[in-house]
Amino acid sequence: MNKDILHTEIQEFINNNLSSDAAELLLKGVPFKHVDSKLIIEQIEAKKRCEKKLPTWYNTKNIYFPNKLNIEQTSSETTAKYKSNLVSGNNIIDLTGGFGVDTFYFSKQLKNVIHCEINTELSEIVLHNFEALQISNINNVNDNGIDVLKRLNQSFDWIYIDPSRRDDLKQKVFLLADCEPNIKTHQDLLLKHAKNVMIKTSPLLDLTATLSDLNNVKQIHIVAVNNEVKELLWILERDYKGKVEVKSINLKKNNAQHFKFIFNEEFNAIANYSKPLTYLYEPNSAVLKSGGFNSISDILNINKLHKHSHLYTSEIIVDFPGRHFKIIKVLTYNKKAFSKEKISKANVTTRNFPLSVSEIRKKLKIKDGGDIYLFFTININEEKIILVCSKMN
């Protein structure tokens, strides 16, 4: 960490060049001979990446930004806020603190917080930034989190861990056994020192397979932001032997969509089926990741169009975790029949349909956009159909 970066004139230069082209700046050079130009430009690039993802850091004076990889790997403020609302008690230790975004929000919920980071420079950066952010209840430890846990030998209300998903060659990995630290080998240690453990993992993990790797799982949180699944959160509780609750959450700008069900009950849940009724529902990405396709039909009392379509319908509108549509017309999939509708522009979606969106657009000569939404799918009678809809939200 080069503290010269924090000098007033360099900070002003960084802020004044956030919209500048990095290549041009590098070619032109910067007016500070005592600091490497590349380092200043790296600060500019890193800060730009934080404008939407980490607005608190972006808008706070004298923040020191790490490299782009650290910014890429860190939680967003949106997901960090969500995680902070899951914890309670007096203390928490973040074993893989990184840039400290999750730790920062945990500090708003618990009195005593420990941030562990093995990378010396990153740990120094985080310590400086917490001071700039005026946070005083976080103890920063520059060491391996697992080693810190063993050395402290104390009890915590919560342990939080976000294993690194990069191998020794800096290649991306996502299976628990391939991440560092290896949760499978350390989970007993974690539950020995905390009643509650929160594990953040890649959204690529299979729920069923991962449940076989973990013990004492109480909840799985599937967290999406603007319909893109960002992370899976596994809540472990010491000695817990009950049913696993799956909570899907889609965090949107002005609201959030929730749906929850019991994992094992999905296999026994019976979905209702029907032909398209008045309203059509498309699940958000968090629900799709959860696999609760029968549970959502059963719990919300809505019908599926087909076992493999994952589209739902009802006569009376319900509060649904996804997109809502009013069905205007149901067409049999037929080029000649479709041409009579004179639809030349529409938003096209396929679910359980043999053709891709691009193939459909080309075949039926449909341009993208407009207020009409077309769903190409298969009904309970195995017939290819087109649902002509208008969007409700």
UniProtKB/TrEMBL annotation:
Keywords: Methyltransferase, Transferase. Residues 279-321 form the PG-1098 ferredoxin-like domain. Residues 322-391 form the THUMP-like domain. This is Putative methyltransferase. InterPro entries: PG_1098_Fer (IPR054168), SAM-dependent_MTases_sf (IPR029063), Thump-like (IPR041497). Coiled coil: none annotated. The keyword Transferase applies. GO terms for molecular function: methyltransferase activity. Gene3D superfamilies: Methyltransferase PG1098, N-terminal domain (1.10.10.1110), Vaccinia Virus protein VP39 (3.40.50.150). One of its GO terms (biological process) is methylation. It comes from Winogradskyella eximia. Signal peptide: none annotated. SUPFAM superfamilies: S-adenosyl-L-methionine-dependent methyltransferases (SSF53335).
